[in-house]
Amino acid sequence: MKEDRLVSVKEVAKALGIGVSTVWLWVQQGRLPEPIKLGDRCTRWKMSAIQSVIEGGS
């Protein structure tokens, strides 16, 4: 079962073994899904979506 908690950009970067700036670059390139915007300075991703990327899905 995939985990569906919300994770920060730092957690996404750590899970993928990349830097924070690379996370944002990959979002622009369409390699990562768009984050969920929770406020002016708060964005999160569903962990299940990041796990799909890690597993080679979309």
Number of extended strands = 3
Largest sheet, strands/sense/barrel: 3 strands, antiparallel
| SSE string | EHHEEH
Q: Tell me the strand percentage band.
A: 15-25%
- Terminus-to-terminus distance: 17 Å
Radius of gyration: 11 Å
* Helix content estimate: 40-55%
Counting structural domains, the number is: 1
Unreliable residue stretches: none
Biggest sheet, spatial arrangement of strands: 1-3-2
**How many DSSP H or I helices?**
3
Gross morphology is: globular
Oligomer description: single chain
Structural category is: alpha+beta
Mean pLDDT: 93
How are the SSEs ordered, and which strands pair?
Layout (H helix, E strand, L loop, with lengths): L5 E2 L1 H8 L3 H10 L6 E4 L2 E5 H8 L4
Antiparallel strand pairs: 1-3, 2-3
Short structural description:
This protein is an alpha+beta fold and 58 residues long. The chain has one domain (6-54). The protein has helices at residues 9-16, 20-29, 47-54, and strands at residues 6-7, 36-39, 42-46.
How would you describe this structure in keywords?
three-stranded antiparallel sheet, 3 strands, 19% strand, globular
Written description of the protein model:
This protein is α+β, with helices and mostly antiparallel strands and 58 residues long. Helices cover 45% and strands 19% of the residues. Strands 1-3-2 form a three-stranded antiparallel beta sheet. Helix 1 (9-16) packs across helix 2 (20-29). The chain is globular, with a radius of gyration of 11 Å. The relative contact order is 0.26.
